[in-house]
Specification:
Radius of gyration: 19 Å
CATH architecture: Up-down Bundle
Largest sheet: none
Number of domains: 1
Strand content: under 5%
Number of helices: 5
Order of helices and strands: HHHHH
Structural class: mainly alpha
Helix content: over 70%
Distance between the termini: 51 Å
Shape: elongated
Number of strands: 0
């Protein structure tokens, strides 16, 4: 019985430590970090979808769905960041930086969709891959607190 209780307590501690701390700040800065992290995940998924279609490992239709979902996630992050209430000039400046990254991400995803659809004049896959990688890195860093 004592062993069982110790096991339950240890399990509860592990669960609370792993689930309770996201490492992100609260308030507006936390909201901005979460929006950036969500957008970074979306741009990383888009980059993977684009690379898979370029390598002929998935269909254009599948890549288009991935890109649409990524764009929706970025636009949701943009909406969250744009409506976040700031209480200082620093927070407002951080929000503006994030909005710039999100605008760039939405534009890159639009160009990636054009590439997958075969729109003439669309950037090639390596250029889009590099742009999405840069945006993913920037958004991830922002989400982790780099300002």
């Amino acid at each position: 019985m004592l062993r069982w209780r110790r096991g339950m307590v240890a399990g509860a501690v592990v669960v609370s430590l792993s689930c309770g701390c996201s490492g992100m700040p609260g308030g507006t800065e936390g909201d901005l970090s979460r929006a950036a992290a969500d957008a970074a995940s979306a741009t990383a998924s888009a980059q993977l979808g684009l690379s898979l279609v370029a390598a002929h490992r998935t269909t254009g239709n599948h890549a288009d769905v991935v890109l649409d979902d990524a764009l929706e996630a970025v636009l949701t992050s943009y909406s969250a960041a744009a409506t976040a209430e700031t209480s200082s000039e620093d927070e407002a400046a951080h929000r503006d930086v994030l909005l710039g990254y999100l605008e760039d991400a939405a534009s890159a995803l639009g160009r990636a969709r054009g590439h997958v659809a075969g729109v003439p004049g669309s950037p090639d896959a390596p250029a889009l891959d590099g742009e999405l990688a840069r945006l993913t890195d920037s958004l991830s860093a922002f989400g982790e607190g780099a300002r």
